[in-house]
Write a structure and sequence with these properties.
L-histidine N(Alpha)-methyltransferase; binds N,N,N-trimethyl-histidine; 4-stranded mixed β-sheet; about 325 residues; about 25% strand; EgtD; 13 strands; transferase; SAM-dependent_MTases_sf; alpha/beta
Length: about 325
């Protein structure tokens, strides 16, 4: 291969206006370096996340599903008849089906998700399988204030936020989110899925699976940048590193540089030292008491909590 071939490839123009480009540049120019985990989820990242959910070490998805399966009737009773259901970050809308199957005369279902394409497909599937249900998808970022029409008089609005997605928020962000949700859901409530504090070894294993799927998921952030932004990250120059920090009750995921390296982000040259990290995700774990206190502070009244036998995961009802 002629040595010139590399240099004659015209560099792709840096898409400076794209939100991912802006966030990635900001991530590499602040200290400590960190980026929002929302950028994991392109098509490839979503596929890898689906594989994570099937891993033997990754207990949250199957544990929450078992809790929903075992207690959906009781949950539907707490929600009550004729409710409007709003799911935050609905994705493929598969968990909510366990609730919908037991819910009496739901008035309407509003799945909210940033990915419009994903949402339309999920809504079509729900309309097919629940012919009487009024499905009203909303393509929006649920961390911002949601603009929803006021429910008809007498209709209780109930939120569904499964998957311990709330764990991606810091406690301060979780409080802000819950305050907004309490306001939106006043008179109804929130059904919240939360991963619980447990043996650190178990937590560690869930984010360090033997097949390396979580590592691929983490590294996909840089692979995605290479695909979408034309960066030239060498994926073999970074290690996946995930650990539990008990004092902050959270898993931290990082990409650690294996060597000193220079990367170009458009017009900006970034120097990365050997051992330097990009913090890509935090996944906060809660105790039942900590969750209850946070919910109270946000203006909810904690009600029943459903747990698995091992007490690894919890689906908590919060009355608004
Ligand atoms: C989707 C945020 C709940 O934190 O466990 C899984 C994402 N990251 N493995 C989590 C994730 C690495 C997941 N959440």
């Amino acid at each position: 291969r002629p040595a010139a071939s590399f240099d004659t490839v015209a560099a792709r123009p840096w898409p400076a206006d794209e939100p991912f480009a802006r966030d990635l540049l900001a991530a590499f120019t602040r200290r400590p370096r960190s980026i929002s985990p929302k950028w994991f989820y392109d098509a490839e990242g979503s596929r890898l996340f689906d594989r994570i959910c099937e891993l033997p070490e990754y207990y949250p998805t199957r544990t929450e599903r078992a809790i929903l399966q075992a207690h959906a009737r009781e949950m539907a009773d707490v929600i009550g008849p004729g409710a409007e259901l709003v799911e935050f970050g609905a994705g493929s809308c598969d968990k909510v089906r366990l609730i919908l199957d037991e819910l009496r005369e739901p008035r309407c279902f509003r799945p909210v998700d940033i990915s419009a394409a994903h949402l339309q497909a999920a809504a079509a599937g729900l309309r097919r399988d629940y012919p009487g249900l009024d499905v009203q998808p909303l393509a929006a970022d649920y961390t911002q204030r949601l603009l929803l029409p006021a429910p008809e008089p007498g209709v209780r609005r109930v939120g569904f936020f499964p998957g311990s997605t709330i764990g991606n928020f810091t406690p301060e962000e979780a409080l802000a989110f819950l305050r907004g949700a309490a306001e939106l859901l006043r008179g109804g409530g929130l059904l919240l899925g939360v991963d619980l504090v447990k043996d650190p070894q178990r937590l560690h294993a869930a984010y360090n699976d033997r097949q390396g799927v979580t590592a691929a998921f983490n590294l996909n952030l840089l692979a995605r940048a290479n695909r979408e932004l034309g960066t030239r990250f060498d994926l073999s120059a970074f290690d996946h590193y995930a650990f539990y920090e008990p004092r902050l009750q959270r898993i931290e995921m990082h990409l650690v540089s294996r060597c000193r390296q220079d990367v170009r982000l458009g017009g900006t040259a970034v120097e990365i030292e050997e051992g330097e990290t990009l913090h890509t995700e935090s996944s906060h774990k809660y105790t039942l008491d900590g969750l209850g206190a946070l919910a109270l502070q946000a203006g909810f009244r904690p009600g029943p909590a459903w747990l698995d036998e091992e007490r690894w995961f919890c689906v908590q009802w919060l009355a608004a």
